[in-house]
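To: structure desk
From: M.T.
Subject: fold request, one chain
Message: Could you run this one when you get a chance? Sequence is below, nothing fancy, just the single chain.
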Amino acid sequence: MISFIDAMYVPYIAAFLFVFAVIFGVLNYAKTLGFSRNVNGALAAVIAFFATAYEPFVFGMQEYMPIIAGLFIIIFFIMFLKKVMRNESGPQLKFVM
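Reply: Done. Structure tokens follow.
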């Protein structure tokens, strides 16, 4: 079987991509530092590289990634429903969160 990525490197690549996506999303959403998207991407890549270089972090991410992904899916659907349920003509519908 031909494989492009060796199975030994998959946890490292997954941890890098996860940390990069979270840091990049937070930096773009919060805009606390006021940098452009290119600088935010470079900063997220550096942070993700250093996080991936720490081996216990990679194995912890490998262990808890299904739980974290499930939580992100639940949060995504809550935010999606909140946006869909917004009433344009009247006051906004109130949710507990």
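Reply (cont.): The chain is about 70% helix and 0% strand. Let me know if you need anything else for the meeting.
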